Amino acid sequence: MIKIYPMPWTRASPWLAGVWLGYIFYRQGNTRYKMNALTVCVGWTVAAMTGLLVVFGMFSYNRVMVPMPYEVMTQVVYGGGHRLAWGVALAWVVFACHNGYGGVVDGFLSHPVWQPISRLTYTTYLLALSLQSIIIYNTSQGGTYYFTHLNTLISTVGAVVVTLPLALLLSLLAESPVVGLERMLLRPNHSTPRPAPPSEGKAASPPPPTLDGDSAKAGTSTTTTITTTTTNGVGFSNPVFTVEEAMES
Question: How far apart are CA 75 and CA 80, in angstroms?
Answer without folding.
Answer: 8
